[in-house]
Amino acid sequence: MLLCERFLDLRSSLALDSSNFRTTYFSNKFSLCNHATGASPSAQRFSSTANHVTGILVYTLPSDMSRVVYSTDIDMASVIKDTGEIWGRLFDHRPFIQGEVTFFLREFQEKRSDREVEHLFKILEYTTELKESQLDRTEQLGDCHLPSLKANVDVALSMCNRVLQREENFDSDNILSENRLLRKKEWEKFINDMSNKCEKVDQTFQEKENEIQEFYVDLEKKLHIMP
């Protein structure tokens, strides 16, 4: 913004001082012409008429001394032109904005066409169909099935509450200690039973061995095999 204001001030000051510059420039130019021609002071008293016609300042001199001084203000015009070009490059965004507007129109108007409108019409058709045919059927089905669904949900909710209540009343540490004791007693009982069974098996084996041994001894005696 500061740079913009400085350019505006520069252009305004150049526009205001252009007339003073031309007047001073042509006065100095005319004085230099009189000095170069060697005109006398009496001849330098003249009646001048200043006419600005397309950037030309005309001085009318008496008798032979009439001269016309022409100036086109090339320097001032070039300065103003350069200032305008700088201004346009810095602050004239019309080409960029025009390109963006064209791109926006092409993407959202030409390519997309009337897709959104068609979608809106389809949605309107669906909603109209639902309103006319499906809404009453949905209401009837809801009146028919929602009470039983509510009853089932209430039963499930009560069961969940009972489970939660049992969970709150459940003392896990005591239950675990009791289960450990039970398992320990069962293991001890199992070990004792296995020991008793092993003893019985050993005793039975020993008895059978003794019986077999006595049988063969008696058999040898009967057959006189003994030496």
Automatic annotation (TrEMBL):
InterPro entries linked to this entry: Bloc1s5
Residues in the signal sequence: none
Cellular component, GO annotation: BLOC-1 complex; transport vesicle
Stated family: Belongs to the BLOC1S5 family.
PANTHER family tied to this protein: BIOGENESIS OF LYSOSOME-RELATED ORGANELLES COMPLEX 1 SUBUNIT 5
Protein name: Biogenesis of lysosome-related organelles complex 1 subunit 5
Organism the protein comes from: Atta cephalotes
